[in-house]
Each structure stands twice: as structure tokens, then as C-alpha cells.
Amino acid sequence: PARPQRAAAAVCSAAGSSVRPVPDRNRRPDQWPVRDTVVPGPPTTRSPVQLAQREARKAARATEADDRRARRDKVLKGAATHTSDLDMEEGWGRRGRGSAVRRTLEIWAFCFKFLLEERAVQKIEDPVDKADRRRALAARLKNGLLRLGPTFIKLGQLLSTRVDVLPKEYIKELTVLQDRVPGFSGERAVQVIEQDLGKPIEDIFDSFDTVPIAAASLGQVHRAVVDGRQVAVKVQRQGLKDLFDVDLKNLRVLAKLLDKFDPKQDGAARDWGTIYDESARLLYEEIDYVGEGQRADRFRRNFEDTVWVKVPEVDWDRTGPRVLTMEYVPGVKINRIKEIEAMGIDTDELARRSGQSYLTQLLRHGFFHCDPHPGNIAVCADHGGTIVYYDFGMMSELPDQVKTGLVDLIFGVYEGEAGEICDSLVSMGVLRPNVDRVSVEKVGRYFLQNFRRSYSGGNKQLTQSERKEEMKGRLASIGEDLLAVGDDAPFRFPAVFTFVFRAFTTLEGVGKALDRKYDLTKIAAPYVKELVDLRDGSAAVTLLKTFRKSVGWRNEDIGAVVTQPRKVAYMESVLRRLESGEFKPRVRVLESERAFKRMTLVQEGMGFGLISTTFFNIAIALTAAGAKFAIHAKLAWVSTIFFGLRAVMYVLKVKQLDNRFEKYAGAV
Prior knowledge:
The chain is of the alpha+beta class. The protein contains 25 helices and 14 strands. The radius of gyration is 36 Å and the shape is globular. Helices cover 63% and strands 8% of the residues. It has helices at residues 2-14, 48-75, 83-97, 100-122, 127-148, 150-159, 168-174, 186-197, 240-261, 272-285, 289-302, 337-342, 347-365, 400-415, 418-428, 437-456, 464-488, 496-514, 520-528, 532-536, 539-551, 555-562, 564-580, 590-624, 630-665; strands at residues 76-77, 207-209, 214-215, 219-226, 229-236, 268-270, 309-310, 323-327, 332-333, 367-369, 377-380, 386-389, 395-397, 491-493. The strands form four sheets. Strands 1, 2, 3, 4, 5 and 8 form a six-stranded mixed sheet that branches. It has a four-stranded mixed sheet with strand order 7-12-11-9, with helices on one face.
């Protein structure tokens, strides 16, 4: 115990002062020595040279700080962000860190409230009053999507392109979500840049505008200058991952519900869980800006020989996980028709180029843009209308097997071969291999004829009565087969096609805005002629195969001739077995299948009805027994209501099935 005291005394003595060692706390208070007063030692003296050097260092540090502040003030330009935008950003952060249950209630409450208000607007007969009410409702819808956060802003961006689905009041408001989402402060953007790149902002850019030129759901874009050239700096919002984690939990629940309750009456066996997984993967990839830069470089290389497609170059020295610096390429949004026409650009040709560029992505490269809304596509005047692509966060790739099958599918459509179409669908994983293809091919042949009439100009704009007559004729021709396809559900829905269809849906809306007569099928038909080299590697080889097919000189044709006697012998053996009763063919009777299906629904509904009636009687008896069985009576009443609702649901299912049979089979 005495060693620390001696050490302390030695230190104090060496420092030029005398002090009493600290008392030992193990002693009794009456044994403590009296504390001595601290005697200060002689003051430390510095030479004039040392003092001058010290002041010089202080002055140099102050000058350096002033220079850095001046450089920073010179680099940073712009004004402060509006307070309401900052509040919205903070609200998204709180939702990401908050309760998942509260978030779920907020989402579904907003959806139900909007649907009820839209239903009320639809009942208004006065067109002027109806338009005014819908404009107000569209504004509330936009503000609600902004309040819910980036996930739902993405949904609004998709809906903003559907001019053929939503009323114009909704389109006008939702268009704001494409590139005018409220941004966050420039100071926060600078903070993210400095954290990601590890340098002060003045060491990264010659100048940096703190006011964003565009703001989207996941980030915002600032203009900056590097070595005399303008660049666009994309900065990510904070807290996106937390918000995605909460929202995707709700979407996972929705995917499970859809897997369970989706009736799949269109014949497609959709795997909503797989679709959700693919969507979640792409959403998380979208907040990785290094990966986005790599995808942008790949996309640019794919179109380097197409002069009317422009992709900005990435500045990798100024790019990080949350910061993406690219070449600044200004342009006019592709849906601003008047501005495009003022530039002297042919909008019909521009619509054709937009469809052609996307078909090139799918069929040639197999690497395509998943989010081609007008906020991500611009137009400049070069080459008669150059299409500029932005935002490569959501990109997807078609596997080689799917890409080859897709090309074969287009060739099958072009040649009018329903069998080849089904074969290509099997290779793509869209059509299950072991299904009854008779009905599928018959439906395919019918729609192939419609496609050929549409392409040749035979399918003009029809009136309402003509459409009804056409529908009656369609149901009379293939109504039974449509029912068979719907019952068998032979089609599967690969997850990657979710984004293919989404992109085509978006492009359809953009194309119709540019050209009212826009038809992607008409663009695709002549474009297929340019894809012959994808099928066999050479147009000459494809032409030779087509010739051999027309004259019957293919290998399979020659093989069929050689093996014909063997096939005849096999058919004879089958007929003999059929005659002797050894072979029993199975016949599919569609009417019996439908009757059994209806009977199953009726029996299940009757079962729930009987259970509900039983609980009803029990509930009455327990209620009459008095307060002693009050809890049991409540449980019985709850069970009565539950099973009664299930019975009503089955009654509605039977009614829906009858209407469906009447619609498709009644015209036959």
C-alpha cells in the first residue's frame, strides 16, 4: 500500500511541488495524517523564440481554417431546403424505426379510405363537379403516397404512366412523383458525400449545387462541376433499409395471401412468393449505388453502336455505396409532348424508337431496364430524337434459356405456328410440360389470327356494339377451351416476367401519350425480321432452315419417312389391344368436370352452413341457460357468425362459377 503513495510523492516532487501522499483508506479516520497544503513550484518559462513559433502556428491554423471555409463556401451553392420537406424525410425515418403493426394499419387504412372516396366520386353525375372532386382526391392520393414513403412512391410512379387505365386527374398529380418528390437538405447530402468518399466536399468537386435538380423516391440528384465539366451527383436518402424492412414484411404477408386466395381463373399459376422475393432483391439492389454504376456501364456498352440511345458515363473516382457521380446529360422528359414537338422531333418515330430499344434490350441483350417511367427517360434533339436513359437501380436479366425461348416465341407468332409457340413457352418455363395442350393450342391459333388481322390493318377501331358482337363470336369459337385452360391452370408465371410486363405496361403508356395509334405488336412484327441471327446465328442459316421446312427436307421430316413403317406397326398393335380390351383410353368430359367442381363447392358450403346452424342452436340454448354459461354462449355466437360467413362465401363462389360457365359456355 505504501508504494503508490511513494510513487505519487516522487511524481509531485519531480513536477516541482510538494504534496502529502494520499491517506490510506484502510486506516481509521483518527489515524489519518493532517493534509498539507500544495505548494506550487516555480513557473515554466518559455523563450521569446518559442513564444513566437507558438503564435505563428496558431496563425497558420486559423488561416488554414479560414481558407477551407472560403473554399467550402465557394464550392457549395444553393439555398436551404424547405422545412416541410425535412419534416417528411424525418417522418419516413420514424416509420422505418417504428412498430410494424402501426405501419400495417396505416397502409391498409389509407387504401380503404381512398377506395371508399373514389367510389363516392364515381356516383357523381355532374361531370364538372365530378372532375373537381377527383382532382382533390388525386392530390390527397399523391400526398398520401408521399407520406407512406419510397415503396409507395414507386407504386405511384408506375400508375402515373397508365393513361389508358387511370383518369387524367390522377395522371396529372401522380406525374409529380416521377422526379419532383420532396428532397432533403443540401447539408445532409454533403454529409453523405463526405462520409462515403472520405474527403471534404471542396476536395471532391470544384463546385456543388446544394439545391437538387431532381428528387425521387430513393435519392436526389445535384449538379456539380469537376475539372470544368458538369456532372450529376446522385445522393441516397438516409434510413431506406429500415423502411424497406418494415414495408416488405407487409408485402410478404400480402404475397402469402395472394398465393392462398388467388383464384387463377386466367389459367396462370402465379407464384406470388417468388415474385415477392425477386421484387425485394431488386429493391435492395437499387440502394447499392456501386452496383448501379456497374449496371449503367454494362447498359451503355450494349447500346454503344446505337446513335439514338444515350447512357451517361460513370465517374468512378467520385462514386460510393450511397453516392453515384455520372456525366450530366440534360434532356426533356419523354412525356412532355409539346416541348418535344417544339424541338422538331417526330413523336411517332420517337414512340417507335422507345419500343424498339426495349425489344433490343430483351431479345438481343437479355439485360433490360425494369423502371422505364418518364422520370427515367428523356429526349434530346440529337439524331432526330435521342433517347436518354437514367437510373439503373432496377435492372434485370433474362436467362439464356428464357431469352432463346422468347425469340422462338416471336418466330412462332410471326410464322403462325401454335405448336412452336407452346414449345417455346415450355422451354421458357411458362407452360407446364405435362398438360393438355389441345385447348391451349386452339386458343393460341384463334388469337394468332386476330394478331395477323391487326397487323394487316383488318382490325379497325370498333364501336361498342361491334365489340360485343366480336366477343360473342370469340366465346362461341373458343369458350369451352377458355374454360378448360382456366380450370387446368397450365401456365406458370416466372418472377422475372413481372418486371418485363411492368416495363411493357409503362412503355405502352408512354407510347400512347406520344402516338395515339401506338401498337407495340406492330412495332415488334417487322422488328422480328432483324432478329433472325439470334435464332441460328446467321440469317442465311435461318433462311435455309425455313426453305427445308417448306419443302419437307428437314432432318425430322426425313426421319419421319424412314420410321413410318415402324409407326404404322405400333398403331396396329395399339388398335389390337384396344379391340381386345387390354387398352382402356381415358376420355376427358369437360361438362362432368364442371359439374363435379360445382358439386364440391355446394357440398363444402352446405357443410359450413350445417356447422353454423349447429352452433346457432347451441348459442340459443346457452343464452337461455342464464349468466352461468355467458362465456360459452359468446363463443358459440362467434362460431355461428364465423361458419355462417364461410357458408355465404361458398354461395358467392357457386354464383360466380355459374356466371363464368354461362359467359364462356353459354354462347356455344
